[in-house]
Specification:
The chain has one helix and ten strands. The protein is mostly beta strands. The longest helix has 6 residues.
Length: 145
């Protein structure tokens, strides 16, 4: 099996296992969709998905990287975002400082990563305003604590 001059055909003829050629998993092509599921105090529960009804990650995706920003509008420059962490789950929570004033807006964004930690494009940021009524992604009114 380990002899370098042996071809796959020779291995097959000898009844040995022929290993499949490895193909690298490319970086994800599409950004995730992000939904705010719940807000309790300063803890925000978020769900990532690929736009389908499935709750599973897309093929070739190992996890996601989550970013946040505190401010009235989402920034354009990547350096302004705060790294919140990586997750292998599609539902996760982000807890913000309890010192944030009521009416403070926070933004969340994420991007998929493959098993080699190569990243895809980031999703459109979504916002939550603490201490005020806010519309969630489905358009229903939800009270943010």
């Amino acid at each position: 099996q380990a002899f370098p001059g042996t071809t796959d055909q020779q291995r097959s003829d000898l009844g040995l296992t022929v290993r499949k050629a490895r193909t690298p998993i490319p970086a994800p092509e599409f950004p995730p969709s992000i939904d705010i599921v719940n807000v309790e105090g300063r803890t925000v529960t978020v769900r990532l998905h690929d736009g389908s009804p499935s709750r599973a990650k897309p093929d070739g995706v190992a996890g996601a990287t989550v970013l946040s920003y505190v401010g009235a509008a989402a920034p354009d420059e990547t350096g302004a975002w705060k790294f919140e962490g990586g997750t292998t789950r599609t539902t996760f929570t982000v807890t913000f400082s309890p010192t944030l004033e009521p009416g403070t807006t926070v933004w969340l964004a994420a991007f998929w990563t493959n098993p080699r930690e190569e990243s895809g494009p980031a999703c459109m940021p979504v916002s939550v305003t603490f201490g005020a009524a806010a519309l969630n992604q489905s358009g229903t009114l939800k009270l943010a604590a």
